[in-house]
Structures are given as C-alpha cells and as structure tokens.
Design brief:
The protein is an alpha+beta fold. The protein is built from three helices and six strands. The strands form two sheets. Strands 2-5-1-6 form a four-stranded mixed beta sheet. A two-stranded antiparallel ribbon has the order 3-4.
C-alpha cells in the first residue's frame, strides 16, 4: 500500500511539474471559438465546430514539445481548419492565429491568469455570440 502511494505521489509530482512549467503565458496557445450569435442553434453549432476542430488537432499537436512547434502546425493548418469550421457550421468561418486578451480561467485546477495569449481564433459567421475557450497547446482540450 505504501509503495503504491509513493508511486502515485511521484507520478502526480511529475505531471504537476510539467503542467506548472507550461502554465506561463509565453508557453501556451489558447483556442477561442466565437459563435455566430446567441441563439440555441448557433451555440449548438459552435460546440459541433469545437468537437470537429479538437478531433482534427489532437493527433497533430499530440507530439509537440514546444510552443513554436504547435504554432508552426497551426499556421500551416489554417486553411484546413477554416474549411472544416465552415463546413461543420454551415456558414462562413474565419480562422486566424494571433494575440488575444483572455480572462483568468481555470482548467482542471490549473489557473491561467488574465492577459494576452497567442491564440487560435475561430469566428463563425458574425462572431457575435457567446464563445468557448480552452488551451490548444499543451493539448488540454482533446
């Protein structure tokens, strides 16, 4: 029992160290999906786009060790992501990679402070609706 507890503690410590090391604004890429509007239909479509984009990105970003690797993959994938988002949403979609302000957000007990982050931004239609945020790198949302 004690050996299992020690092993579990060691694993948790290693994982925490990895996550804390990547919890800097300079080390992560956020993802932001803006719905066309606040109708229930547009909000459901936003979640469908989220699922399609996450499914597409998961294998591409899973092997990334550095933010620069993730940015390179995302940059080269922008046309495919735009097509995927547009086809999934059934409306126009603009997909960009840039800097954007984010509020403080907590994911799985990890706090990401408010501030400007590198972000994959997906704007569906007018982009006037409620949005969805997460972390694209290190992969947290897939």
């Amino acid at each position: 029992m004690k050996k299992k507890l020690i092993a579990l503690t060691a694993v948790i410590t290693v994982i925490a160290g990895i996550l804390i090391g990547t919890n800097s604004k300079n080390d992560i890429v956020r993802i932001h999906i803006l719905a066309n509007d606040n109708s229930s239909e547009a909000q459901a479509v936003k979640l469908e786009v989220r699922d399609a984009v996450n499914e597409y990105l998961a294998p591409l970003l899973s092997g990334c060790k550095k933010k620069s690797d993730a940015i390179e993959i995302l940059q080269t994938s922008l046309p495919q992501l735009e097509q995927l988002a547009s086809e999934t949403a059934g409306c126009s979609a603009a997909v960009t990679l840039g800097q954007e302000d984010f509020p403080q957000k907590t994911y799985n007990d990890i706090v990401y402070p408010a501030g400007e982050y590198t972000a994959l931004i997906i704007k569906l239609g007018d982009g006037a609706g409620q949005n969805w945020w997460c972390v694209a790198f290190p992969p947290m949302c897939y």
